[in-house]
Amino acid sequence: MNLKKKSAIFITLLVSLLLVISGCGAKAPTAAPAPADAGKEKIKVAFVYVGPVGDAGWSYAHDQGRKYLIEKMPQVETTIIESVPEGADSERVITQLAEKGNKIIFTTSFGYMDPTINVAKKYPDVTFMHNSGYKTADNVGTYFGRMYQARYLTGIVAGKTTKTNTIGYVAAMPIPEVIRGINAFTQGVRSVNPQAKVKVVWTNTWYDPAAEKDAAKSLLTNGADVIAQHQDTPGPMQAAEEAGKYGIGYNMDMSKMAPKAVLTSAVWNWGPYYVKTVESVINKTWKNDQYWGAMSDGIVDIAPYGPMVTDDTKKLVADAKDKIISGKWDVFTGPVKDQSGAVKVPEGQVMSDKDMLSFDWFVEGVDGTIPK
């Protein structure tokens, strides 16, 4: 091969090599960055309700909290199971939710306590939160709010409104939670109207619209002109409106269901607590605490007033609310007497949480008995 031909081949190879090197250094077109949540698996959270979410009461309030959770934490995927009976059936439902990969399960009725504990033993990697109970485990916490504080305030409204001095109270189950609410409400009533009585009728059900309404009717027939309730539906409020009387709602603002009757309602605000709890599980800071949030936390409050509530009554409630939120005074500050007139909490003392959580007696001013 002659020199010219060798030179031509060499130059051709050199040019090709330079082109290859240049191509390796070129930047290829870049794809748009993936969203921050792309590829992240959503955390699955489940809720078990004792009634339908359309009950306009207890389960509805919890479901509003669930919706708040989704709004604030879009990385969460939720499942709800409605109308789950307390007892063995609830244990089956809770087990199914754990099997389906839910990492946090909120069980929202007192009767789910033992089933929640039983299922938690089998699924140590799942966090369980039981509402209103008192049993915990390594992966089980409890949560509730000091609804008795809101009950006291609504009692003031009822005590200032009644003309017959007979206030009816439709009560679900004879457990400490319900008894505590009746007592706090009565303390509020008697703080402004010492002559008034709170007459209690038990339904032995959380959710039975007909039974709740009938119980309210019986109280109205027996002279009550204001009806309060610890029930999951607005049935008692509707009975009050139909009778031309007044009512105090519970769980949610029930004024839409009985606008001419509802003076105000003792209400729950679960959403912020659900967000805080899920965040703590994700951040691995969760602890199996027994949370009992105060009105100062915002978890309990009273709803806006109906137009029939006077400015004088509103002022009394506002003053009492300020005292409660300040922490300088609470509802069961002595002297507190039982139905017989015996002093149970001496003057200057405050009832302990332990005693409030195990209430099994009525305060002075309650007309009724506690079934065994």
Task: Explain how this protein is built.
- The protein has 372 residues and is an alpha/beta fold.
- It folds into two domains: 43-145, Rossmann fold; 147-265 and 300-367, 3-Layer(aba) Sandwich (Rossmann fold), CATH 3.40.50.
- The chain is 39% helix and 19% strand.
- The protein has helices at 3-25, 58-72, 88-99, 113-122, 147-161, 176-192, 209-221, 235-242, 271-282, 311-326, 353-356, and strands spanning 43-48, 76-81, 104-107, 127-131, 140-145, 166-171, 197-202, 226-230, 246-251, 262-268, 290-293, 300-302, 336-337, 343-345, 366-367.
- The chain has a seven-stranded mixed sheet, with helices on both faces. Strands 2-1-3-4-5-11 form a six-stranded parallel sheet, sandwiched between helices. Strands 13-14 form a two-stranded antiparallel sheet.
- Strand 3 (104-107), helix 4 (113-122) and strand 4 (127-131) form a beta-alpha-beta unit.
- The radius of gyration is 30 Å and the shape is globular.
- Mean pLDDT is 91; it is low at 1-39.
